[in-house]
Amino acid sequence: MTKSVALITMSTRAPRAGPHVAALVKSILDPEAKANDITLVPVDLADFKLPVYDEAVIPGMVDTGKPDAPVFAHAHSIAWSTTIKAHDAYVLVLNEYNYGLPGGAKNAIDYLLNQWKGKPVAIVTYGIKGGAFASEQGAHVLGMMGLKVAETRPQLQFKGGLGPEAFAAMLQGEVGEEQLGLWRSEKGADVKKAFEEVAALLKEEKSV
Fold first, then answer.
1. Are strands 89-95 and 38-44 parallel, antiparallel or unpaired?
2. Where is the NADPH-dependent FMN reductase-like domain (predicted)?
3. Which CATH number characterizes residue 84's domain?
């Protein structure tokens, strides 16, 4: 049976480079997905316009499988949780702000638990230093929540660190072809490896 993997753009601030980075990651992974009978589905967190968590129920009490379990009341919560629940695994394209996990991404993660607990996830970060802190924090949070985090976590660093490429991304939401090409050539193998680890975890689940 074909598996569904959500490729999630986790940046929400405008302007943002996230969609460009996610498009690059998808182009690298499309052949790998096809080879592993996986459907790669783009999801953009910004489309859900999630406010700071505003439900009256605790997220961990939703989608427990029990008939009397609480449910979300707001359309944005229902849309986000339903979307995440629909997939078998995830690739998060995650940005880094101020040396850590962005508030919008953490807020979105905090809406969830049972919808993706136990499922595989790969984390691809980008930033001035490649998003190393966001990668580490994201892996810690998601792992503690019960997701199976791929060991390989690609980190896409802007050429020159805090230079013209990074400023173009931050101020105009632009990522040049040269920068995308560098990431493809220097980190493409890591992106593929992370996805292969997700695919292997999905196959393990199928064989159990």
1. unpaired
2. 5-150
3. 3.40.50.360
